[in-house]
Amino acid sequence: MISFAKNLRMNYDYNTQRKRMALPEYGRNVQKMVDHIKTIEDRTERNRAAKTIIQIMGNLNPHLRDEGDFKHKLWDHLALIANFELDIDSPYPIPEPSKFREKPKQVPYRQGDIRFLHYGRIIELMIGAAVELPDGPAKEYLTTLIVNQMKKAYITWNRSQVADEVIFGDVKFISRGKLKITEGVKILEVRELLPQPKRKPQGKPHGKQPGKPFNRKKGYTRH
Known about the structure:
Strand content: under 5%
Order of helices and strands: HHHHHHHH
Low-confidence stretches: none
Radius of gyration: 34 Å
Mean pLDDT: 81
Number of helices: 8
Distance between the termini: 68 Å
Shape: elongated
Number of strands: 0
Helix content: 40-55%
């Protein structure tokens, strides 16, 4: 009995013991079918089997149909699943394997420290853009958007209240005194900037409600 249990445990088929799939979104069955058609010697039969698999792959990913190169993408995926070892007459050029192995290019992030992390670099860029604007309604409108976003970010990240004078002081510091706060620039209240928590609806009280007579069922007689 013990030896039978050991043999049964050894026959388990775990995913970690299976062959790694190049595109897991198509599933293990598609991987097995692609591995099988690589063993078909007749080229005509192999091409016919490849077209059948392309139809199955398209049915498994209907969202790809909205793309203009839908068919081309499926044939590229077929080559990738087959590890570029499938000799068939593809209607599209087979992609180069090296393109799938090269490392992505490094994104050229801007270097430099951000003075106020809770505001972020976007606020600094917006303040710089507002400084370049000529005085007028457009500059005043943009400044209003900036200070309100700064107050919203401050409260969100610091979990505390903040006086409007602090926001105005930060604007002066970031702009190096170049962005003036005019009388038309107003900062909203906290309740206007952040969504207020919704109140939970109160459930109906259980039991007999006060002032409501008790309705005795028809035919009920108390002894």
